[in-house]
Amino acid sequence: MLHEFTHPILRLCILASLCCYLCLTGCSHKDAPEKTNDLEFTVVSGTDIPEELQNLIAQRQESTFELTFSDNSCLYVIKGYGKQASGGYSIVVHDFYQSGEELVFDTELFGPKKDEPVSDSPSYPYIVIKTKYRENPVVFR
Prior knowledge:
Elements: H1 2-28, E1 37-38, E2 42-44, H2 51-60, E3 64-70, E4 74-81, E5 90-99, E6 102-110, E7 126-132, E8 138-140
Parallel strand pairs: 6-8
Antiparallel strand pairs: 1-5, 2-7, 3-4, 4-7, 5-6
């Protein structure tokens, strides 16, 4: 009798575990939008960033932010990672491309290496790329 009772419970547990696994992996991994066109861009910093855009970045730097800015000849795409406890952070652009009518900007923040000396002062890592002017919406990944 115990065997008959345990068997359906075991099936239910396996089924529930499988559902949880599929839900978690499906929710945590978003498929990247399909690439229809590679886009050229340049990473810019310092005085290559328009003054008005520098001011917008300074206003937002405490928190994570995503921003686009245009001077009617170029499009600037900006991703900020907010206040970090120390220096030594870097940002990698994995990709910037067109997907249908959208532009996709895929970046990642990397912390300081374990053996790398860093300042104890907070930092506000962000990245700015410059590309030709487009009116397409930008998707940040």
